Amino acid sequence: MIELQASQLVGKGLHRECYVHPDDDNLCIKVVVNRGEEETRREQAYYKFLQKRNVIWEMLPKFYGEVDTNLGSGAVFDLIRDADGSVSKTLEHYIESPQLTEVNFQGLLQSLLSLKEYLITQNIMTMTIKPKNIVYKKQEAQSGLCIIIDNIGNSDLLSISSYSRFFGRKKINRKWTKFITSMQKHYPENQSLHRILAVI
Ligand SMILES: Nc1ncnc2c1ncn2[C@@H]1O[C@H](COP(=O)(O)OP(=O)(O)OP(=O)(O)O)[C@@H](O)[C@H]1O
Ligand SMILES: [Mg+2]
User: Fold this and answer.
1) pTM of the full predicted structure?
2) What is the mean pLDDT of residues 110-126?
3) What is the Cα–Cα distance from 135 to 89, expressed in whole angstroms?
């Protein structure tokens, strides 16, 4: 059984806690802390579906299966880190501060454009896209990757969008538009963000 220590906590959402894997700095273990079983089940079913399809994992952490921990069953994923070794921060972190958005303007803009293109070319479905469920993996001063760390999948695995690239693209475009609209609404003061949202 794997012992997870409070000092190794990376982040926490509404349902899960994310810890650095004690045996491998480049992996994390997510445990359910608050009624997240249903989301976890959906996520793992969708990951299985993607594994069978041989998708490219460029902007999605790989899933390595489940392990037993002192906090219950844990799901193992790639832990996303910046080029300097620190754990990557969420997009929410970068856009909460207009200054931080401005400093990383080019990197954020390019990586968001790439993320949208990636989701469409790989036909990867997401539930609601939220800035707290994307991390910005900073690689250089003005370049990086936006990686979706939570809420991928389809509420209905039999949904036509998962199998048809045509309907898939339509669905991804709809989710993306909602993602933009919600950021415009939530961060009315961040001018740099609004310049980014106008072109992605
Ligand atoms: N693969 C990862 N690499 C780096 N950081 C991560 C990774 N996965 C999660 N995190 C961090 O841990 C936090 C919580 O993880 P996650 O979003 O999976 O939990 P959750 O409870 O499912 O979230 P939600 O409230 O959106 O349902 C994230 O917001 C992020 O800061
Ligand atoms: Mg989350």
Assistant:
1) 0.96
2) 98
3) 5
